[in-house]
Design brief:
The complex is a heterotrimer of chains A (202), B (555) and C (343). Chain A is mainly α and 202 residues long. Chain A has helices at 4-21, 28-56, 70-94, 98-125, 134-164, 176-201. In chain A, helix 2 (28-56) packs parallel to helix 6 (176-201) and helix 4 (98-125) runs antiparallel to helix 5 (134-164). Chain A is elongated. Chain B has 18 helices and no strands. Chain B has helices spanning 3-6, 29-58, 68-103, 111-119, 121-134, 147-150, 153-183, 196-228, 241-275, 282-296, 311-323, 325-339, 348-371, 373-379, 383-413, 419-446, 460-490, 546-553. The longest helix of chain B has 36 residues, at 68-103. The relative contact order of chain B is 0.11. Chain C has three domains: 7-68 and 92-114, no CATH class; 125-155, no CATH class; 173-331, Immunoglobulin-like (Sandwich). Chain C contains nine helices and ten strands. Classes of the chains: A mainly alpha (202), B mainly alpha (555), C alpha+beta (343). The structure holds heme-A (2 copies), dinuclear copper ion (CUA) and copper (II) ion (CU). Dinuclear copper ion binds at residues 181, 184, 219, 254, 256-258, 262, 265 of chain C. One heme-A (HEA) sits between chains B (142, 256, 259-260, 302-303, 321, 324-325, 328-329, 332, 361, 364-365, 367-368, 370-371, 376, 380, 385, 388-389, 392-393, 396-397) and C (55, 59, 97, 100-101).
Chain lengths: 202, 555, 343
């Protein structure tokens, strides 16, 4: 279906069409906000399932299904702090400080990686598996699904870093990528806090 | 005073749209809208053919045409196709095509995202159909565990994957609709002079954003149970199948409003135009969509009245469900008020529109009946429910899609459809629909359960009527298909505004140029200011066919 | 408004009411009533049918009326009246439906609590599912769901189904039967006896309670002539309590999709005089004392039948006959099973 001729014309179309869209104000952050509404509903649904099941099952955490709290606790602190670190990066670019952006975002990426590493370590050392108990299943699926989101957020940050190597790519007036990555990271953070309370503390 | 309409088409100096653009990753919302519409119609014919096999099987009490396993696959895929590949994408089709035109924008807010949303649908649909090769899912479109975990594993997994793709598509589309309507209206159009279709799409998109992700969550957990051996919903491992039902219906009840609201919106556009009257009670109709959305989020357990829901909760969900009759009634009565005192021309869109009111009413009234817990305990999971759901979905959504397709056909293609065959299509569809689904009420009340390939011979006569009605429905699609195909290729040229309508999409050429408007459109009147010296309709195309007029007089 | 149109409206209103009332009582769409609860549900349905008929006539009537009165005449390309709203009218048609649904809700609530739906004691003190299974079957270990994890005990206090009617509250039922749904049969264990049967017998006029459980997947226990239905949920116990008041044979239908042979998961309920019931029970007890059975042995697995065997009785009569269930003994069951595997 895709002959070269087809391709060239359709790209032509796209570019001429997208050019025109620069006229309307940048709506991407609004779109992002709606996207995060949808994202929160997935987590809300999963959390609700978690809570209902928990209230129904007689033995919630059977022998050997207990979770360690120290490592994830440290992990939590790292993740929450990373949100503040990242915010400094976003503030920096609003003052046209590109080096600041690179530094703080780099630090955030590092902290995010530590979090993921911590999670991997935790997975390797938990005494239960995915199918050992219903608690175990929820534990892995919830933290895993969240971990996927952290990974995605990390990729966004790395993308911003990659692009920011070119001076002037982000500036006081043009920093959608920075803002979007930041909003997403905060979202992932908030979800983690709820998840941590539900899975580890409750 | 009606200058924009008379702008000659030749003035548009845009490149010609070529047929193969419709097969590419185009970011033009009009191309995408038509891609959506044509794709969803193809899936309608597939879903309808499956229904044809279902009804053939049910013409006799014995299970003689297909095996019981295959029968279960047939209705599972029938419902999945009809819902996720026909009605929902068809709603997105009109949303895509119409929203930017109606609000005077050049395109959607995120054209590339829009194209991605569309291109998730064909693979999702093909994936679903491919499940027949390995044994399609057999657990009904509701896919309740534990059954869905025990039968037809590969098919079930394909079903989950396909639904995740289609759900993602729907979410991406909803983001686009929301942002576009919210932010891209022409400056003079405030929220209360926006066409009602846009209101309906806001209500629909809000539901999609809030409910579809919960279905995704349920499907992810179901997939783990299916493939990884967890037991979230499997009582054998300590899970609770009822939790799945809650999550499923938290999406699938709002989904029924996702499937009807866009066409309620379209109806609010169509009726005033063909009755030459302002919409009756603009604000009431606009807000009632939002109220339906909100209520739609808190009634889901009415699908679980005989399941694991305690008595007092059943009462709560009964009352919230019944209240939905109020905003829906506001719409129905508003439409009747619109027709009252108008000058109604029985064009095909108008016939389908009035047919929608008539048939949806029946489905809505039975909906309120089944909302009553003591009565629902009797009819739950019987053909009474099958009758209800087809009256609202076929009598509501499908007739709405037909009405909208005919109404905007001249705009989309620049050609006029054939009025006579349109009316034939309507007559056959309307009779066929009532023959097919009316007897199902009685079947259910008398004791015929749903999802069965063989049934008590005492029910045979009524079932025969249903099957005969389906034959009529199948026949009715032929005048439609031929009319559409022929008119698109060879039909008479349509004027820019053949209906003399006032909404902005009619101010540009038919079909519109690539960026919709050659010069920024201006609102010279409200969207429904008929009878106030606005535009006049040109009904000359109705005249040469006196036969067709006679056909309409008997309705 | 002149007088004739007022009179017309009045006449139309009276006619509308009369037709709706008549149709609401005479639709003839429901099967016989075999219990007091069925009569109550029918009363509710008739009331809703009356209202629905009225609304149906009003809306369809308006559609036909406007289609005739306000059709565009040939050559008239003008617009209709510019009337675009009427607040009092809109309030009227918001308030009336609101009042109607409120009324239906209250009536439904009343009927539901009369049926025992709100009995706070329903399911109270029921056993955990594993105990339920152990009661229904002789040994749990043989069953496919032997690994069923016990649910929380306090889950038993959630009322699921229909409990005692207000009149019978706090009274034990006269007859207690444990119902087990499994692919694809219903089996009944009569409390206080060893009787396990594939058909349900109940004495007329006595308060009966069914404790419903499922072994494998969801099923739903439906008695159309009694207008009652409740899902059988693996891992949970539900109940239906009712008093049959009409002698006869009634179908017992599985209403929840439970697999390919969901459609044949049918048996019969025999409502008999107390004497007949007792003698049936005694006869069963003698037979079963000689050869005890578990529900799983009583149930015939229709999916293991050849399609001819399976369709033959079905085409003539709804459901597997009770004789089939009774005479299908353990050995035969296994023979068929291995046959399937060998072929
Ligand atoms: C487009 C889709 C659509 C729509 C719009 C509706 C609308 C409604 N539905 Fe329906 N429904 C389905 C699609 C839809 N439904 C499907 C697919 C199923 C089955 C799923 C499955 O199990 O497979 C289902 C099942 C279903 C059930 C579960 C039945 C069961 O399984 O036991 C219930 C129960 O409450 C219900 C209720 C209602 C109600 C109260 C409305 C209301 O919104 C209707 C409101 C409209 C009116 C009432 C008419 C107009 C109003 C007036 C003229 C005003 C005056 C009226 C009164 C005062 C009554 N529906
Ligand atoms: C929008 C949704 C939608 C639509 C449009 C339809 C349309 C139709 N449906 Fe469907 N249906 C559902 C949604 C829908 N259905 C759902 C949600 C269920 C529940 C499933 C479940 O229990 O899980 C269901 C279940 C369902 C059942 C019950 C199955 C069962 O419980 O055992 C039946 C039985 O008659 C049925 C029949 C029909 C018929 C005859 C049509 C007709 O209107 C179709 C008419 C169209 C055509 C006929 C196609 C055009 C013709 C051709 C392309 C020519 C070829 C034609 C032939 C070979 C005949 N449907
Ligand atoms: Cu058991 Cu259906
Ligand atoms: Cu619903």
């Amino acid at each position: 279906m895709q002959s070269p001729a087809l391709n060239s014309t359709s790209t032509l179309n796209i570019s001429s069409e997208t050019a025109a869209h620069s006229e309307h104000p940048d709506l991407r952050m609004t779109g992002m906000a709606f996207f995060l509404v949808a994202e929160s509903m997935i987590f809300l649904g999963l959390f609700a399932a978690f809570l209902i099941t928990r209230s129904m099952v007689a033995v919630w955490q059977p022998e050997g299904s207990e979770v360690e709290i120290l490592l994830p606790g440290i992990n939590t602190i790292i993740l929450i702090s990373s949100s503040f670190v990242m915010n400094r990066g976003a503030t920096a670019i609003k003052k046209n400080d590109e080096a600041g952006l690179r530094f703080w975002f780099g630090l955030t990426a590092l902290m995010g990686s530590i979090f993921l590493g911590g999670q991997a370590y935790e997975y390797l050392h938990t005494p239960f598996g995915l199918t050992t108990s219903i608690f175990g299943s929820f534990f892995y699926v919830l933290t895993g699904f969240h971990g996927l989101h952290v990974t995605f957020g990390l990729m966004l940050i790395l993308m911003v870093l990659w692009r920011s190597r070119k001076t002037g790519h982000y500036s006081e007036h043009k920093h959608f990528g920075v803002e979007a990555a930041e909003l997403y990271w905060h979202f992932v953070d908030v979800v983690w806090i709820i998840l941590f309370i539900l899975v580890y503390l409750l | 005073m009606t200058a924009p309409t008379t702008t000659p088409t030749t003035a548009h100096h845009h490149e010609e749209r070529l047929w193969w653009h419709f097969f590419t990753f185009s970011t033009d919302h009009k191309v995408i809208g038509i891609q959506y519409l044509v794709t969803s119609f193809l899936f309608y014919f597939i879903g309808g053919s499956l229904a044809g096999v279902i009804r053939t099987e049910l013409a006799t009490p014995a299970s003689d045409v297909v095996s019981p396993e295959l029968y279960n696959q047939l209705f599972t895929v029938h419902a999945t196709v009809m819902i996720f590949l026909w009605i929902v994408p068809a709603g997105a089709a009109f949303g895509n095509y119409l929203i930017p035109l109606m609000i005077g924008a050049k395109d959607m807010a995120f054209p590339a995202l829009n194209a991605i949303a569309f291109w998730l649908i064909p693979p999702g649909g093909i994936l679903l159909m491919s499940s027949f090769l390995v044994g399609a899912p057999q657990a009904g479109w509701t896919s309740y565990p534990p059954l869905s975990l025990l039968t037809g594993k590969p098919g079930e997994f394909i079903w989950i994957l396909s639904l995740l793709m289609l759900g993602t598509s729907s979410i991406l589309g909803a983001i686009n609709f929301m942002v576009t309507i919210w932010k891209m209206r022409i400056p003079r159009m405030d929220i209360h002079s926006m066409p009602l279709f846009c209101w309906a799409m806001i209500a629909t998109s809000a539901l999609i954003l809030l409910s579809t992700p919960v279905l995704a969550g349920a499907l992810i957990l179901l997939a783990f149970d299916l493939m990884a051996g967890t037991s979230f919903f499997n009582p054998a491992g300590g899970g609770d199948p009822i939790v799945y039902q809650h999550m499923f219906w938290f999406y699938s009840h709002p989904a029924v409003y996702i499937m009807i609201l866009p066409f309620f919106g379209a109806l609010s556009e169509i009726l005033p135009v063909h009755a030459r009257k302002p919409i009756f009670g603009y604000r009431a109709i606009a807000y009632s969509s939002l109220i339906i959305s909100f209520l739609g989020l808190i009634v889901w357990a009415h699908h679980m009245f005989t399941s694991g829901v305690p008595g007092w909760l059943r009462m709560f969900f009964m009352i919230t469900t019944m209240i939905i009759a109020v905003p829906t009634g506001i719409k129905i009565f508003g439409w009747l008020g619109t027709l009252w005192g108008g000058k109604i021309s029985f064009t095909t869109p108008m016939l389908f529109g009035m047919g929608l009111i008539s048939a949806f009413l029946i489905g809505g009234l039975t909906g309120v009946m089944v909302a009553s817990v003591p009565f629902d305990i009797h009819v739950h999971d019987t053909y009474f429910i099958v009758a209800h759901l087809h009256y609202v979905l076929f009598g509501g959504s499908v007739l709405g899609i037909f009405a909208a397709t005919y109404h905007w056909f001249p705009k989309m293609t620049g050609r006029m459809y054939n009025e006579f065959w349109g009316r034939v299509h309507f007559a056959l569809t309307f009779i066929g629909l009532n023959l097919t689904f009316m007897p199902m009420h009685e079947l259910g009340l008398l004791g015929m359960n749903r999802r069965v390939a063989m049934y008590d011979p005492q029910f045979q006569n009524l079932n025969l009527i249903c099957s005969f009605g389906t034959l009529l429905l199948a026949i009715s699609t032929f005048p439609f298909i031929i009319n559409m195909a022929w008119s698109w290729l060879k039909g008479p040229q349509a004027a820019d505004n053949p209906w003399g309508a006032l909404t902005l999409e009619w101010q540009t050429s038919s079909p519109p140029p690539i960026e919709n408007f050659d010069e920024p459109p201006v609102m010279t009147s409200g969207p429904y200011d008929y009878g106030l010296g606005g535009k006049k309709a040109d009904f000359s195309f109705l005249k040469p066919k006196p036969r067709a007029m006679a056909a309409s007089a008997e309705k | 408004m002149n007088i004739p149109s007022n009179i017309l409206t009045l006449v139309a209103g009276i006619l509308l009411t009369a037709v709706s009332l008549w149709y609401g009582q005479n639709h003839g769409l429901l099967p016989v009533q075999a219990s007091e609860q069925a009569a109550q549900v029918d009363g509710l349905f008739n009331m809703m049918m009356t209202i629905a008929t009225g609304l149906f006539i009003i809306v369809q009537g308006c559609l036909i009326f406007v289609a005739i009165k306000y059709r565009r005449r040939a050559g008239d390309n003008g617009d209709g009246s510019p009337n675009n709203g009427n607040i009092p009218l809109e309030i009227f048609w918001t308030a009336i439906p609101a009042a109607i649904v409120l009324m239906i809700s209250i009536y439904s609530f009343e009927v539901y609590s009369q049926m025992g739906g709100l009995d706070p004691m329903a399911s109270m003190g029921h056993k955990t599912p594993s105990q339920v299974l152990a009661q229904n079957g002789e040994s749990t270990s043989e069953m496919s769901m032997s690994g069923m994890v016990a649910m929380d005990n306090h889950r038993g206090s959630i009322a699921l189904g229909l409990g005692a009617t207000p009149a019978n509250e706090n009274k034990p039922p006269a007859v207690l039967v444990k119902v087990l749904g499994l692919q694809y049969a219903w089996t009944f264990t009569y409390a206080g006896t060893d009787v396990v049967s594939g058909e349900l017998h109940l004495p007329v006029g006595e308060d009966a309670q069914l404790d419903i459980a499922a072994q494998d997947v969801l099923h739903a226990f439906w008695l159309p002539e009694f207008r009652i239905k409740q899902d059988a949920i693996p891992g949970r116990e539900t109940e239906l309590r009712f008093t049959p008041n009409r002698l006869g044979e009634y179908p017992v239908i599985c209403a929840e999709l439970c697999g390919a042979y969901h459609g044949v998961m049918v048996t019969k309920l025999y409502v008999e005089t107390p004497e007949q019931y007792q003698s049936w029970l005694d006869a069963q007890q003698v037979a079963q004392a000689a050869e005890p059975k578990t529900p799983q042995q009583v149930a015939v697995d229709v999916s293991k039948l050849s399609s001819n065997q399976y369709l033959q009785p079905y085409a003539q009569e709804l459901g597997i006959t009770p004789e089939m269930l009774q005479h299908m003994d353990h050995h035969q069951h296994h023979d068929q099973y291995s046959e399937q595997h060998n072929s």
